[in-house]
Amino acid sequence: MKRRWLVSVMMIGLLATTACSEQQPASAPQKELKHVVVAPVKKEQAVTVTELSGTLAPLEEALVSFEVGGRIVEMNRKEGDTVKAGDVLARVNATDYSLQVASSSAAVQQSEANLSKVNNGAREQEVTQARLLVEKATVGLQKMQDDFNRIEKLYQQNAISKSEYESAQNGLTIAQKDLQNAQQSYSLITQGARSEDKQLTQAVYNQTVIAKEVAANTLAKTQLRSPINGTIIAKLSSAGNLVGSGTPVYQVGNIDTLKVVLPVPDREISAWKVGEAISLDLYGQKRDGKVTKIFPATNQNTGTIGVEVQIANQARDWFAGQVVKATKTVTGQEGVYVPVEAVISRGKDDAHVFVNAGGKAVKTSVAIGQIVSDKLEIKSGLKEGDQLIVKGVDRLFDGDPIEAAGGTQP
User: Locate the YbhG-like alpha-helical hairpin domain: which residues (predicted)?
Assistant: First the structure.
């Protein structure tokens, strides 16, 4: 009896517990309080600091080479020497070129004599000599004609071979040509040179004069002269070497003024102006340069446009080949700019931020623009005074409770 009573009591207790459980359901778990950093949204002026680097080069430079080949016999200039335009820097062996000048001079003298002969006409002795040659050729032709007539009869009688007959025939032809040549020579001498012959002789003379000038110019090129005022930057050969035309021997440059070509991104080129000053830094030493040229085309490989900056270097304490850093600050439009890490973006048309609204993170869609330095332009979605969560956004969901870093409620 007692045992039954105990079982009944236990059953009543279980039913009572079950009833209480059904009447009081369990409450939902609270969201974790997340610590963030908050900053007020405000408008500001966009400031872009561009840092570019480039290699210093002489303002003007030239690789100087001989225009003629040969063995270098003199090369006395060394690196660091100051030279002026026209100064002799080196020489090659000029013997062969001197002989060409002598040969062309002799040709000029010969053609000049021929020209005088044509213009002055033949002397009496030359006329007599030409007449005698005509007479000699006439006698020779008569003899050959008689011989041919005799041989022809023999050939018709089959007394000689065909080759003997043809030989006599050829001899007669030659004798006829000799007489014609002698007559023409006599005619030229007695009548004087034709205008065409005079023109031809004059042209030959002119050609020899030009050849002499070419030879003289070639001889002058055995001396290597500096094309510019400047400093010997590099000596690229030495005496005794055999060099060909166009082989660089010296590098000469003007290092009193240096230049550097900066690779400016084409989207920023509108901020660069010819004549403006640019700050340059070389191992902590700062110096102002001046923009002197903006190149007219974009480099297709890098997407940059070259901007040439010139730097005074009278002390010559900056050197060609050193790399300098240029800094330029550009002030842009006023607007809302927020740290890049405050924006979650899956593309330009799908971006959002989180703002504090009564201690909770509220997901807010925004339209973004360009990146300026380390900040992102917000075109719409935020207004001045909004409490923007700038750090810790990667752990947030819409509606999460938040607390500012340091334990204060934002």
Answer: 94-207
Per-residue pLDDT reduced to its tens digit, 149-189 = 989 988 888 888 888 888 888 988 998 998 898 888 877 77
Q: Report pLDDT for 346.
A: 81
Are 107 and 212 in contact by the 8 Å Cβ rule? The answer is: yes
Quote the CA–CA distance of 134 and 130 in Å, as a whole number.
6
Q: Which residue from 275, 318, 242, 261 is spatially nearest to 70, judged by alpha carbons?
A: 242
| Fold for the domain defined by 62-94+221-249 | OB fold (Dihydrolipoamide Acetyltransferase, E2P) (2.40.50)
The C-alpha angle 403, 408, 409, rounded to 5 degrees, equals 50
CA 386 to chain centre: 53
Residue by residue, DSSP assigns 223-266 as: EEE-SSSEEEEEE---TT-EE-TT-EEEEEEEEEEEEEEEEEEG
pLDDT of residue 317: 93
Domain 50-60+254-332 in this protein, CATH class:
mainly beta
